[in-house]
């Protein structure tokens, strides 16, 4: 089904939702949010594209294959837990923090951000691999 | 290497490899090599951990530096380190075997990432020091196990997957409910903390309910009588490499969890529960062996022999003596290796003769004498004859039963050994000795990647049998650690201070 309104607004929604998903990811440090919810929001952004233009276009826009994205995410998450093991000052996933100022911007960065980014990618990849797969099966049955 | 690294490596190595496999999703051929490399590293890490535990005692890591009982502790004591080492050996053998035993469908469907994921779940369950975390690892390995069944995309495996999933999800849900009741009664989930708190609580309805639910759910997981019926249905249709992994590892994780929970929380099985476990063990043992004897399909027979083996393991729990638990620990290691070996060999036989139905094959000794000898070795170990590891495993278990004033149980164990010997003789006579039926298609050249890992596992069993002392010492330490958990509690609760 093609809808002119959806097609016209899909790109706009896509960009807005993707930016908002990153905002959710970042604010997850000490407010509601984080990698999981942010990932769901990003997956919803790609879902809008899938609904408007089909799965093929959404897959192109994702650049990476969704399962590959899951693998990358898993890597980020594992990587974020390794520093204490390598430096021998704590258990797996003991997170490190860096606080500083760049210009007027007060920053508090930690390895937790890398972990959350990993979760974000895993969730986007996981949800979209299911979605794309369902679209494929649906298309096969329709033919 | 630091303790923290050593304890966590058997979990994060396969997890990393699962991630690698996912990154190379579009190159399934590479995933084979990634998995073999990963399993080699994991086996090395597991043996390093075992060496560490044997020299330093119980090793604990607190991920995120959250001290027990508030964080989730990862704990390696002699039993868990031994189990991880044996599981890693079987996984390594299976990953080499998987160079030939995996269909194209399965390869593209993500067989190898799921393989790695299964090992994450298995090692996680062996190493966790937290009962809720144990539930999470159960889920991880359950999801990966179902995945390994459905990736083949054929009717038989899908049917097995549905049955396996339904019953095991039921078991896992009961386990979660039991954990909830336990938490309600004790207010903590850390094993070591529970072991301190629960004995002082006194009897309560919630605790009793939790105990019964643990018994039922772990009975499903460990395929104990009368809850074993899902296992032969689910295991015999799967590709050999999958059934080797399942047969060697999944039920063992269930019995391992039963050891941990009952010994740490309920100070062994005493009173009515003790009697129930004794009879569950006896009936599981004997029904498994007798049901195996009447089967005509090789892999169905082996599936029932898994059930029978679980009975021996439960005997250790039923006895709750250090000797009994030590014997069961020895049996656990023997069982992981030998069940892996026989299922891999069953796959080789199916390749050689074109079927695993014993009525349709025969005469393999003339075409494949080496395979006949190797399978005889594995079979004798399974039945408990010297010079293989099975002999010592069964002797130790029976001996512990007689010492533990359970002569009837010891007698049943010996009788069951006889029935399993009959099973093995039947398999060997049917597949190798009798003249093969007309029209049987024999494959003359067997792939080395299938023969070598299966043979290696049989040789491990032989080595343990010939040189049993080191493993007996380790198993005795594992048993003593289960019977008297004070070292475990001290290591976990002291680590945070």
TrEMBL record, chain A:
Q: Which residues cross the membrane?
A: 12-29, 35-55, 67-97, 117-135
Tell me which InterPro entries the record gives: CPA3_antiporter_subunitB, MnhB
Q: Which UniProt keywords apply?
A: Cell membrane, Membrane, Transmembrane, Transmembrane helix
Q: What is this protein called?
A: Na(+)/H(+) antiporter subunit B
Reply yes or no: does the keyword Transmembrane helix apply.
yes
Q: Which domain of life is it from?
A: Bacteria
Report the family membership: Belongs to the CPA3 antiporters (TC 2.A.63) subunit B family.
TrEMBL record, chain B:
Q: Residues in domain NADH:quinone oxidoreductase/Mrp antiporter transmembrane?
A: 130-412
**UniProt keyword Cell inner membrane present:** no
Name the domain of life this protein comes from: Bacteria
What are the entry keywords? Cell membrane, Membrane, Transmembrane, Transmembrane helix
Transmembrane regions: 6-26, 33-54, 66-99, 111-128, 134-152, 164-186, 206-229, 241-266, 272-294, 301-319, 331-355, 367-388, 408-428, 448-468
Which Pfam family is one of those matched by this entry? Proton_antipo_M
Its annotated compartments are: Cell membrane; Membrane
What does the sequence similarity comment in the record state about its family?
Answer: Belongs to the CPA3 antiporters (TC 2.A.63) subunit D family.
Q: What is this protein called?
A: Cation:proton antiporter
Species annotation: Glycocaulis albus
């Amino acid at each position: 089904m093609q809808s002119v309104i959806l097609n016209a607004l899909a790109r706009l929604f896509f960009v807005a939702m993707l930016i908002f998903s990153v905002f959710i990811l970042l604010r997850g440090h000490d407010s509601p949010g984080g990698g999981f919810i942010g990932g769901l929001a990003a997956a919803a952004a790609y879902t809008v594209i899938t609904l408007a233009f089909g799965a093929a276009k959404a897959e192109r826009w994702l650049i990476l294959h969704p399962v590959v994205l899951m693998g990358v995410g898993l890597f980020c998450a594992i990587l974020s837990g390794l520093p204490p093991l390598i430096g021998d000052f704590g258990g797996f996933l003991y997170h490190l923090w860096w606080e500083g100022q760049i210009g007027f911007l007060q920053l508090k960065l930690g390895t937790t951000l890398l972990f959350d980014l990993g979760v974000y990618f895993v969730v986007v990849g996981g949800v979209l691999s299911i979605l794309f797969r369902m679209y494929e099966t649906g298309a096969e049955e329709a033919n | 290497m630091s303790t923290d690294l050593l304890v966590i490596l058997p979990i994060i190595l396969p997890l990393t490899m699962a991630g690698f496999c996912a990154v190379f999703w579009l190159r399934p051929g590479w995933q084979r090599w990634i998995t073999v490399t990963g399993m080699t590293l994991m086996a090395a890490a597991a043996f390093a951990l075992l060496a560490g535990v044997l020299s330093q005692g119980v090793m604990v890591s607190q991920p995120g530096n959250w001290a027990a009982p508030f964080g989730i502790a990862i704990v390696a004591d002699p039993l868990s380190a031994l189990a991880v080492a044996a599981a890693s050996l079987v996984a390594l053998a299976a990953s080499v075997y998987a160079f030939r035993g995996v269909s194209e469908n399965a390869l593209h469907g993500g067989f190898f990432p799921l393989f790695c994921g299964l090992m994450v779940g298995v090692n996680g369950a062996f190493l966790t020091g937290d009962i809720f975390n144990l539930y999470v690892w159960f889920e991880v390995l359950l999801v990966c196990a179902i995945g390994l069944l459905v990736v083949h995309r054929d009717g038989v495996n899908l049917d097995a997957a549905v049955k396996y999933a339904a019953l095991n999800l039921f078991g896992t849900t009961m386990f979660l409910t039991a954990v909830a009741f336990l938490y309600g009664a004790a207010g903590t989930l850390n094993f070591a903390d529970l072991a301190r708190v629960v004995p002082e609580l006194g009897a309560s309805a919630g605790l009793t309910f939790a105990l019964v639910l643990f018994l039922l759910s772990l009975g499903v997981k460990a395929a104990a009588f009368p809850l074993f019926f899902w296992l032969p249905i689910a295991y015999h249709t799967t590709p050999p490499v999958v059934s080797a992994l399942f047969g060697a590892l999944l039920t063992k994780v269930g019995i391992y969890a039963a050891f941990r929970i009952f010994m740490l929380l309920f100070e062994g099985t005493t009173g009515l529960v003790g009697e129930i476990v004794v009879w569950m063990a006896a009936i599981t043992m004997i029904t498994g062996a007798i049901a195996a004897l009447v089967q005509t399909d090789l892999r169905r027979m082996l599936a029932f022999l898994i059930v029978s083996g679980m009975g021996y393991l439960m005997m250790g729990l039923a006895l709750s003596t250090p000797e009994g638990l030590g014997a069961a620990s020895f049996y656990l290691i023997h069982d992981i290796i030998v069940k892996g070996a026989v299922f891999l060999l069953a796959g080789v036989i199916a390749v050689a003769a074109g079927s695993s139905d014993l009525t349709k094959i025969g005469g393999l000794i003339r075409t494949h004498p080496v395979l006949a000898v190797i399978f005889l070795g594995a079979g004798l170990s399974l039945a408990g004859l010297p010079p293989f590891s099975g002999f010592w495993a069964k002797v130790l278990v029976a001996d512990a039963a007689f010492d533990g004033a359970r002569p009837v149980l010891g007698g049943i164990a010996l009788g069951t050994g006889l029935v399993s010997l009959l099973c093995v003789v039947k398999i060997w006579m049917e597949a190798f000795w009798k003249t093969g039926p007309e029209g049987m298609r024999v494959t003359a050249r067997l792939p080395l990647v299938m023969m070598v890992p299966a043979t290696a596992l049989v040789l491990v069993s032989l080595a343990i049998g010939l040189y049993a002392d080191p493993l007996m010492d380790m198993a005795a330490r594992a048993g003593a650690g289960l019977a008297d958990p004070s070292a475990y509690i001290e290591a976990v609760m002291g680590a945070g201070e």
